[in-house]
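Please decode residue identities from the backbone states below.
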């Protein structure tokens, strides 16, 4: 039988005053087991508020370390946590908020091999991941385990939130997006940027949906996709319906086990293409070319504001969107090297040049970030 000590009665007193929660509702929260995937921008407010609310057990999944570039949005971590495990940072912060919450720590990347074993004992899954491969894996996992999934995503100034509850007849993520997008077609936060407060908004909405589901109160977002535009501060709602042709939960499903979507599509955070599909050079090889007698044609396909922050000496700025306008100025046998921040946009530039008939085009692997790491540490990283 779930009981509370005097300290807990004081801690949760404002919940206890709510007729929709009360003592019985707080007991439900204490008995609940919630799995949080990711401890980054979305995972921070999710874990913070679920711990503060008194959810009895939080499973935390993340294998990453805290980076300085995370801190404008990942409020679960601080400057002293940089280069340390997000799991360890989260453990300290969440226990400081509420020592009564049990924390199950999974310092691993979620994969098809470990997902079922990790998730099986939880009541509900909250997805705070930032890449397509994990989103599809978590969606499929929740379907096969018959567990509801609270979904959230962010991009620049826009975010989305919904509840996928296929055991109750609701649609799944694949009803909305049957297959992952083509590799490199959607930039990550590290490529496109994100307003730091946005994951706080979406993550808090996810935490709200989680608490409502546990308490069985209010109207959930099941079958509704909430879109938030932080620039206009407008909230829009879209109706989601179960797709009878869905490859996972449809009438004739083709997916009957967990699959790794990386085998068919790159995740949005894996922006570097493989050598087998895109001709490429390392930054060391590029440096040798630049030190040669004849200077190679090095094109930086980033935006002007990025170029102003840092650039490789000798690189010519031609943003990706304007690149085709320059094709007629170059001989198609010219050796051309293309570079961006981390390799994604420059890979797209290589494809454009190849389609136009250029035969000696090469992507600079890792972009200017790799150049800063391995060639010139004075180059400002961003």
């Amino acid at each position: 039988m779930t009981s509370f000590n005097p300290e807990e009665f004081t801690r949760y007193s404002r919940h206890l005053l709510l007729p929709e929660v009360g003592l019985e509702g707080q007991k439900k929260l204490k008995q609940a087991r919630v799995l949080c995937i990711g401890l980054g921008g979305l995972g921070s407010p999710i874990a913070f508020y679920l711990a503060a609310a008194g959810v009895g057990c939080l499973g935390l999944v993340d294998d990453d370390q805290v980076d300085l570039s995370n801190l404008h949005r990942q409020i679960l971590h601080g400057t002293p946590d940089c280069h340390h495990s997000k799991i360890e940072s989260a453990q300290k912060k969440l226990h400081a908020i509420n020592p009564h919450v049990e924390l199950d720590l999974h310092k691993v990347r979620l994969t098809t091999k470990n997902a079922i074993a990790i998730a099986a004992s939880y009541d509900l899954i909250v997805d705070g991941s930032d890449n397509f491969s994990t989103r599809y894996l978590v969606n499929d996992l929740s379907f096969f385990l018959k567990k509801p999934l609270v979904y959230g995503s962010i991009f620049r100034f826009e975010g989305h939130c919904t509840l996928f509850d296929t055991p109750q007849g609701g649609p799944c993520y694949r009803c909305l997006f049957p297959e992952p997008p083509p590799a490199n077609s959607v930039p990550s936060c590290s490529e496109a940027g994100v307003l730091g407060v946005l994951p706080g908004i979406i993550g808090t909405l996810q935490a709200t949906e989680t608490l409502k589901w546990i308490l069985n109160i209010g109207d959930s977002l099941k079958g509704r996709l909430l879109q938030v535009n932080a620039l206009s501060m407008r909230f829009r709602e879209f109706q989601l319906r179960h797709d009878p042709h869905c490859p996972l939960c449809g009438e004739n499903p083709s997916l009957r086990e967990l699959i790794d979507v990386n085998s068919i599509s790159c995740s949005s955070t894996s922006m570097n293409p493989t050598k087998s599909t895109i001709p490429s050079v390392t930054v060391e090889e590029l440096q040798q070319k630049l030190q040669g007698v004849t200077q190679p044609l090095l094109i930086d396909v980033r935006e002007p504001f990025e170029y102003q922050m840092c650039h490789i000496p000798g690189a010519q700025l031609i943003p990706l969107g304007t690149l085709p306008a320059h094709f007629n100025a170059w001989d198609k046998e010219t050796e051309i090297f293309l570079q961006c921040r981390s390799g994604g946009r420059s890979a797209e530039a290589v494809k454009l040049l190849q389609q136009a008939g250029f035969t000696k085009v090469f992507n600079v692997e890792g972009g200017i970030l790799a150049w800063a790491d391995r060639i010139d540490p004075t180059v400002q990283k961003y």
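Observation: The longest strand covers residues 149-155.
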